[in-house]
Amino acid sequence: MENTILQPRFKDSSHFKDFWTKGNGKQLIEFSGAEVNFNDFKKFAPYFYHVDEIGDQVVREVYLTKKFHEASKEIEQYIRNGVSENDNVPESVKQLFQQTQRIPDWLDYDLIKSGAELCMRSNLDSLISLRDYCLIGGYDYAYLNKPLIATEALKKGAVKRLSETLDFWVNATRYNALEVHKKGYEFAIKTRLIHSYARVSLKKYYKNWDTENWGEPINSWDMMATYIGFSLVFLHSLHKLGNTFSEKEEKGLFHLWKYVGYLLGIPENLLPNDKKQATEYFYLWTSVQPPADKDSVLLAHSLLNESLENPILKYQFQRKNLRYLHICCTWFLLDDEVCKRLQIPEVSNKNTFPRTKWLINKIYDKTVSRQARINKGNKDQMKVLSDYLKITHNSNFH
Predict the structure, then answer these.
(1) Counting Cβ atoms within 10 Å, is residue 175 exposed (0-12), middle (13-18) or buried (19+)?
(2) What are 282-305's pLDDT values in tens digits?
(3) Model's pTM, two decimal places?
(4) Nearest to 326 by CA among 113, 103, 166, 128
(5) Which InterPro entries does the record cross-reference, listed alphabetically (predicted)?
(6) Tell me, what DSSP letter sits at residue 130?
């Protein structure tokens, strides 16, 4: 695909213009002070056809030469014990671990700690933001979803998908989690190889992949956009829900996800340092994405109905109520246009819950100490994760 010259092909489309002049894009520009234009488009566009070659090579040399569970066990050993220059392992494994075991010069563990504390301190608002803004909002970008559809993620069910995202997010955002060989580091390496495994399989078995339009499966530019979801979009959501954060926490959040992106093999020049940069990068990427299609609607509804299938809550009325609250938050956090495209159901009094939450956050902020909120948030998030893992580890579930 080297000879394909990518253009910002949707920059004159109404979905793109409306998002950036009237919708959440406009809010992101105001929130971040970004200056958006297409001056740097040529610098970013090649990454639509760029992938993590090292990860793909590890998959070919380790996963495709033995049984899956044996390969996973082998990789786990490397993650936990490290790999050195003299180890008798495939060359690609050496390359992968040379990169991820090397601490980049720019890394600041103190900043990462502040970012992790913001994630914990925001308690259930963090989980609402991930689900009802970052995840469901991402479904509006039709090409971004193509790998999910091609790998039949819908068949796996939203409970399992949500559980996996939550497992990764929680484990990446605890104290010291991203130090080499620790749990967050392990999750980053495993996620990187899952992406590579999916990509190698898609290239092999999915004959209808339209590289020119959709980019390479799980390409570096799409990966950048996904991680901007965890930083910029997440931060904007917390802000909309009435949370405040210090400059250091904000900087820390971007730093944390920059490092996770580095571990995942995303090229460093695609990883933004702050909300201004993130908004400018995101603007360029959205210009190559068409609006939601029928697959987007299926993914969004699968996520909305997750509350009804999920046995964490015992009674049907509780599940219906939880679904209603998520729908309220989705309408509150996303643009109306996006909600209409994703066919989010209309519900009555949809602003009551989010606005009450906003008010409670303002009071909570002034009356409860930061450390107490971090401790409580950590405990509550770990509880939600453990509930999800109990359900999805139960073999009868999907």
Answers:
(1) middle
(2) 999 999 999 999 999 999 999 999
(3) 0.95
(4) 128
(5) Lcp-like, MPAB/Lcp_cat_dom
(6) I
